[in-house]
Amino acid sequence: MIATQQNFIDGQWRASRTGETFPNVNPANREEVLGHFQSSGAEDMVEAIEAAALAFEGWRKVPAPGRAAVAARVLDAMRAEAEQFARAITLENGKTLREGRAEVAAAVSELDFQIGQAARLGGVTVPSRTEGVLAYLRRDPLGVVSVITPWNFPLNVACRKMFPALIAGNTVVLKPATFTPLTAVLLMGLLEAAELPPGVANLVTGTGAKVGAPLSEHPAVRGLTFTGSTEVGKALYARASASGIKAQVEMGGKNAAVVLGDADLELAARDVVFGAFSCAGQWCTSTSRAIVERSVLEEFTAMVVKRAEAMKVGNGLDEGVDMGPVAGRSQHEKILGHIEQGKREGARLLAGGQACTEPPLDKGYFVQPTVFDRVRPQMSIAREEIFGPVLCIIEAEDFEHALTLSNDSAYGLASSIYTNSLDKAQRFVEESRVGLCHVNMSTAYKEPQLPFGGRKDSGAGPPEAGDEGVEFFTEHKAVYVRHV
């Protein structure tokens, strides 16, 4: 019997007031329903926000090490149940089990780092200009924080957002993506088992259209953190700003890997294929554009095509699979539409370019790893975020031209350069207009101790992760104390 999962509000699992549910479908086999989840409405979200507001005063008074101790119990449980989480991620997201395990490992790293932040919370003491005055800065929690997470990293991003908020003394309401509610339910189960006080963390599932408004407009909400599409992120940021809510939004990308003539081409080809087709190209940091110097264009392109054609596409739970399905029907249709547009615009299709229609892949949302070359910078496939397994190879005359092409994008999330020239690498780092920059590494690489955030249409507000991860969820208070 297929289970029906519930919302988690004020320490209790409960059905939504709408009385409606939605099916969570396995993208590798749309005939397999993984469970039914609450199709909540605005009333459910308001109830969760109000529960979080009531719990805030009690939670903020718990010393930071005590708050971190709850997170540490979650961390221990997550390590113990890593395989269950990895399989759940693969089942509802589609990524391979290897990638699911990697996501769990990344979530563990994020959580482990943020737990350590509890010992470093606080402000600074500075010399006063006035005799007998103690001057210092303290950081206070915001209050209720809305946490809106994406389906491509349903566990890692949730940990990156929720736990620094909780450790800083805030209470949270989590709204997961409708493609991946199961992972959120499992995570909330760990928080419940860790004896988090009622109302401190709440979970409401459903579509953004039905439950989203209170998250950016309710007067009790004081912070909002979002990862998702640029269109939705901009709208949320505008609404939150109008409501006086502190907001950070991480949005899309059109990430470029620049490959110069002096590069290690084997390394570059391996990394570009990894960045382009991991999670079926559905990372915000995926490599979407390979900008290649003319002198090595033919050789590099042949390497990439060979690797792409050798990839095994299939159910992520199966051994030996290199790439799973895309996340759902809407993604499938959108990606195939972009591919057809690329053909119409005159790009040359070198690999893939179609849905996988042979059994049993015909039951899922599979797209072949796709490579285009002869892509001109003005083409839509070179400018729009496809968010699928599509790589565009663009010719560059030289380093200067490649740098210009790399920056010629509305997005500014991640970039990389492959070269053995220290001078060119340093120039690229200085002039690449992105939030994450790499030298001889994939555009997708990151570590928890540094901030994560994009520029231009890739992000707004302070970044997340690193020291900034906790700092965003606080507000400053300057204090002056005269000794009498």
Topology readout:
Elements: E1 7-9, E2 12-14, E3 21-26, E4 29-38, H1 42-60, H2 64-80, H3 82-93, H4 97-117, E5 125-126, E6 133-141, E7 144-148, H5 156-167, E8 171-175, H6 181-193, E9 201-203, H7 208-211, H8 213-217, E10 221-227, H9 230-242, E11 246-250, E12 255-259, H10 265-277, E13 287-293, H11 297-310, H12 329-345, E14 348-351, E15 370-373, H13 380-383, E16 390-396, H14 399-407, E17 411-412, E18 414-418, H15 422-431, E19 436-439, E20 455-456, E21 459-460, H16 466-471, E22 474-482
Parallel strand pairs: 7-8, 7-10, 8-9, 10-11, 12-13, 12-18, 13-16, 15-16, 18-19
Antiparallel strand pairs: 1-2, 3-4, 5-6, 6-22, 11-21, 14-15, 17-20
Helix pairs in contact: 2-4, 2-6, 3-4, 3-6, 4-5, 10-11
What do these coordinates show?
The chain is an alpha/beta fold. It folds into 2 domains: 7-251 and 458-482, Aldehyde Dehydrogenase, Chain A, domain 1; 255-439, Aldehyde Dehydrogenase, Chain A, domain 2 (3-Layer(aba) Sandwich), CATH 3.40.309.10. Helices cover 39% and strands 23% of the residues. The chain has helices at residues 42-60, 64-80, 82-93, 97-117, 156-167, 181-193, 208-211, 213-217, 230-242, 265-277, 297-310, 329-345, 380-383, 399-407, 422-431, 466-471, and strands spanning 7-9, 12-14, 21-26, 29-38, 125-126, 133-141, 144-148, 171-175, 201-203, 221-227, 246-250, 255-259, 287-293, 348-351, 370-373, 390-396, 411-412, 414-418, 436-439, 455-456, 459-460, 474-482. The strands form 6 sheets. A 7-stranded mixed β-sheet has the order 14-15-16-13-12-18-19, with helices on both faces. A 6-stranded mixed β-sheet has the order 9-8-7-10-11-21, with helices on both faces. Strand 5 and strand 6 (133-141) form a beta hairpin. Helix 2 (64-80) packs across helix 6 (181-193), helix 3 (82-93) packs across helix 4 and helix 4 packs parallel to helix 5. The model has no long low-confidence stretch (mean pLDDT 94).
